Amino acid sequence: MADEAEFKNKADFKIREDALVSRRNFIKGVITSGVAVSSASYLFRASTLLSGQQVAAGVGERLITLNVNGQQRRVDVMKQETLASTLRYKLGLTGTKLGCDRAECGSCTVLIDDIPYYACSVLTHTVRGRKVSTIEGLANPDGTLHPVQQGVIDEQGFQCAFCMPGFIMATVGYLKKNPNPTRKELAQGISGNLCRCQDYDKILTALMRGAENVRRSNRG
Ligand code: FES
Ligand code: FES
Questions:
Q1: Candidates 98, 155, 160: which one to mutate for ligand 2, based on the most atoms within 8 Å of Cβ?
Q2: What pairing do the DSSP bridges indicate for beta strands 115-118 and 109-112?
Q3: Is domain 59-137 in CATH 3.40.50.300, yes or no?
Q4: Is the CB of 66 under 6 A from ligand 1?
Q5: What does the pLDDT look like over 167-220, one tens digit per residue?
Q6: What are φ and ψ of residue 114, in 5° steps?
Q7: Is pLDDT above 90 for 144?
Q8: What residues flank ligand 2, with Cβ below 6 Å?
């Protein structure tokens, strides 16, 4: 019995030790890659969290320059890293949300050369030399909101608003090719975006108001 208890204690100790080593590796990776530790709490799915070894192995692998919201940003990027991950955890642009992380919900929508894309499904290194726009870059430098953002304020269009940045970016992108859509056309144009609160009617009203604001302001 005594041997059995001793064996169990040793086994427990080994499990705790392994957990500590792997946690230590993770923190080391986080620090060396410049990712904020607190960023991990934004993740919805554990599967999207990069392990310490993955982060550490990728550091310095590809130092690239991205054009994000009109600024040149130098960043270390792993080959398999998605744009959503880079924006959120390396550039601190957490307005780009991660919902499904597999091209289903649209909450990560950003514009690449003015066309809406799911940032969770675009590899960061493929957007070198292209223009990336996120929700943080929409307002004017003086703080004046983009007309679509103003439409959302005017109509109070969202409930929890987690999906809001994605919807706004999808709308801004869609209006560039169809500035005067019917309600039905806009609904179809942004149908790649989902809302868990299912407040679609109100969202559409807000975004139609945004489209009207864009036409009035002559801003695309
Ligand atoms: S997080 Fe990208 S589509 Fe859902
Ligand atoms: S308003 Fe809550 S997810 Fe859309």
A1: 160
A2: antiparallel
A3: no
A4: no
A5: 999 999 999 999 999 999 999 999 999 999 998 999 999 999 999 999 999 776
A6: 70, 10
A7: yes
A8: 158-163, 195-197, 199
Domain 147-219 adopts which CATH fold?
A: DNA polymerase; domain 1 (1.10.150)
Atom of ligand 2 nearest to the CA of 159: 1
Domain ranges of the chain: 1-54, 59-137, 147-219
Q: Express each pLDDT in 70-98 by its tens digit.
A: 999 999 999 999 999 999 999 999 999 99
User: How far, CA to CA in Å, does 151 sit from each of 49, 57, 158?
Assistant: 35, 44, 11
Ligand closest to CA 107: 1
Burial level of 131, CB count in 10 A (0-12/13-18/19+)?
A: middle
Please indicate whether residue 171 or residue 39 has the higher confidence score (pLDDT). Answer: 171
